[in-house]
Amino acid sequence: MSARAAVSLTTGLEDPERVTVALLVAVGAAESGRSTLMFLTKEAVRLATTGVAVGTACDGCPTLPRLLERYVVAGGTFLVCPICFNARALDPTTLVVGATIGGTVQLWDWIGAEPVTTFSY
Question: What residues contact residue 58 under an 8 Å CB cut-off, 6+ apart?
């Protein structure tokens, strides 16, 4: 089994349940001790900016802020697609803790030669 996990997320708050599921998977990986990276693209890049990931997707779901907090506390990081981020004219000074701008080269650098468990949402 891989000691690392990569979760790719393309969806933002237009589908909060999908965001919740992706975060739950990422939180589970990070809290179980895996080095975990979420690669945010398309509308998901907005989630890496302060004040965007708010609310609760469904009855019984944890809140998005709580999931983000748990993820970062467990050591999870976000890699935010620069093309998607810049296309939306977002401000890099608003990135949340644990988020960096980086594209496919940085993703492949993080993946490296060792096995990585992957999920895509």
Answer: 16, 17, 20
